[in-house]
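[DERIVE STRUCTURE TOKENS]
===
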Amino acid sequence: MGLFRLLFWVAVIFAAIWIWRRFISTPKSTRPPEDAAAPMVRCAHCGVHVPKAQALNQDQHWYCSQPHLERGPHTGDR
């Protein structure tokens, strides 16, 4: 009976420590990266997808770089 009582109290102490660590301590920051949900657009010239905030817009077309913006949309006759 004494061994059972000792094992019971050891289990209670370990459970209390686990609960304290799990719910009382401050959780680690799991903030997603800022660009994780950034809307993407497709370059009208080369087809590469880039974040909308970094893309260049002209005449309702999006471009990944200034040279592609200057060349315009891809026409398919290379």
